[in-house]
Amino acid sequence: MIAGTGIDLVAIGAFAAQLADRASRFAAATFTDAERAYCESAASKQPAQHLAARYAAKEAAVKALDEACGRAQLDHPALPLTDIEVIRDARGRPALMLHGAARALAERLHVDRAFLSLSHDGDYATAMVTLETLTAR
Q1: Cβ 43 vs Cβ 20: under 8 Å
Q2: Which class for 24: exposed (0-12), middle (13-18), buried (19 or more C-beta within 10 A)?
Q3: pLDDT over 70 at 90, yes or no
Q4: Residue 61 lies in a domain
Q5: Domain membership flag for residue 96
Q6: Can you give the pLDDT at residue 77?
Q7: Coil/strand/helix, residue 97
Q8: Which DSSP category does 44 fall into?
């Protein structure tokens, strides 16, 4: 059963400008070390587009968790975005890994699987997250 869905769209140019602000702690507060390392080493040599897609994934995941909470009539605390990590599976496909408060919330909601789709083209990056429960609770 679908527990929640979320989608987000990020303007890459504005996002790149935010990342370029040396006084900002935005990147460190938003992305894990592994996410930043992957995006900095991407063959495209355009780390901002890859980070923008990951930011969209984190926002989409928060929306999906929020929708699942509404259906379950649960309140939830604000989630640190570093608790939602975009990883790559053995085939290189993006996947979500939840840590800390995000993982605890997903467990409380009985989320068994998370599906993630990322895309970036031109000026925009987007992501969609679908959360699924496999068993009746």
Answers
A1: no
A2: exposed
A3: yes
A4: yes
A5: yes
A6: 77
A7: strand
A8: T
Domain count along the chain: 1
Q: How many alpha carbons lie under 13 Å from residue 101 in its C-beta half-sphere? A: 12
Calpha distance 92→98 (Å, rounded): 18
Within 10 angstroms of residue 37's Cβ, the number of other Cβ atoms is 12
DSSP structure class, residue 82 = G
Residue 77 lies in a domain: yes
Q: What angle do CA 40, 127, 4 make, to 5 degrees?
A: 135
Phi-psi region of 99 (alpha: psi -120 to 50; beta: other; left: phi over 0): beta
Give, as one character, the DSSP assignment of residue 21.
-
pLDDT tens track for 24-53: 899 999 999 999 999 999 999 999 999 999
Q: Count the neighbouring beta carbons within 10 Å of the beta carbon of residue 104.
A: 15
Q: Residue 4: is its pLDDT beyond 60?
A: yes
**Cα angle 115, 117, 121; round to 5:** 175
pTM of the model: 0.93
Range of the domain at 81: 2-132
Is residue 137 in some structural domain?
Answer: no
CATH number for the domain that contains residue 40: 3.90.470.20
